[in-house]
Design a protein that fits this description.
heterodimer, A: 7-stranded mixed β-sheet, 4-stranded antiparallel β-sheet, globular, B: mainly beta, 6-stranded mixed β-sheet, 56% strand
Chain lengths: 116, 113
Amino acid sequence: GAVVSQHPSRVICKSGTSVKIECRSLDFQATTMFWYRQFPKQSLMLMATSNEGSKATYEQGVEKDKFLINHASLTLSTLTVTSAHPEDSSFYICSALGTREQETQYFGPGTRLLVL
Amino acid sequence: GESVGLHLPTLSVQEGDNSIINCAYSNSASDYFIWYKQESGKGPQFIIDIRSNMDKRQGQRVTVLLNKTVKHLSLQIAATQPGDSAVYFCAEKRVSGTYKYIFGTGTRLKVLA
């Protein structure tokens, strides 16, 4: 149990376009999901906390208008990178908190974004 | 951004030896810590966790030690195997209204045959 999926796993887009990444909890409901960004050979940097039915909480330095987060249901959160630029190329990882063990994060497999 | 720091970016160990990966954290109010393993191109995988009311916790081949006095935790892997080669991160739970997890900088473990 406690499987989290992400779609797509890889995406290549042109500069200026928008890209949507989905994060789904497949066999449990998640009121809270987290979005991380990871550059090569670096750690995971928390971008925002996504709460079902409410606005996301963004970390300092993360542009809300550029990284749109929607958590419309208990099993789905989406991250949209708007007007993507090459510097947005990164590995984006989501995690979901289990409803039973509410401190345990279950991570998705990540999405590799390359902006040309 | 804020992070939990690690002392060693790369650790090479012989297969069969024990590995020790260290982590220093900065927030004395953090009450929950987790170690993750991340293989290339994948999401982090939970290894073991520990609460601040404990100083040691053991799992299968892994042990986590917590020293709150100096804000340090370590991950010990016994009889290191080739499959243990990965990047290891510590993370701490920060509570500020809701809570979030802050990751350390990571240590790459290389197991030498």
